[in-house]
Please model this.
Amino acid sequence: MADSTPRHLAEPQKRFGLSPLQQLFLGAMLGLAAITAVIALLTHDTGTGGPRAAAPATTGSQAATTASATTGPATTTPATRPIRPTPGNLLADGDFERDLAGWTPLAGARAQRVEGGASGRWAVAVTPGPAADDQAAIIRRAAASARADTTYEAIFWVQAPEGGQVVLTLRELAGGREISADQAGYNVAAGQWQQLAVEHHTQAPGSSLALEVAAPDLPANGRILVDSVDLQAE
Model:
């Protein structure tokens, strides 16, 4: 006897969707395609389709060159030489950066602050007076109190534009009179800053020290420059 059950009821219904495994595979493929597209956008120029060239790095020197090309030639200002503080210096006003307080010209000399020091901006220029026997000399009285039986050293930076002799003197004073002194003479080269020094061993308790620098053989229009005076106890 023939089966009279309708065909659409007798056969299992056909599935036209994807299996879970197929769905997982399809999702993975779509995700991979999306990642590939993002990478392509990041590594290719959208305008030309070719690789995007990296921008050149700008160094400090290149930046300076570019700025000068756009704003005109750069101007260079000479750097001021820094002050070199000396530990243990007993003299507080030996750099002449503020004034000439405490320093006095001798033997008719004249003294003034000028730019162009050995350290810092300022130095003192000492010139002889108008008289024939005037010298270029300057002194700092009561530079420091001294201990008895102690060696002190005074250091000066000196420049003589025309060269010549420079004499340094370290004097010991007590009760308004000179007890003892030491001198050191130097022949200095023209136009160069030179470091010169003189030593003295003190004798009396309660004395003080005076510093003196002189150029005895300068011409009438000559001068010496003095800077960075340093007084130390050894």
In short: Helices lie at 7-10, 20-43, 60-71. Residues 5-16, 45-83 have pLDDT under 50 and may be disordered. The chain has two domains: 19-52, 103-233.
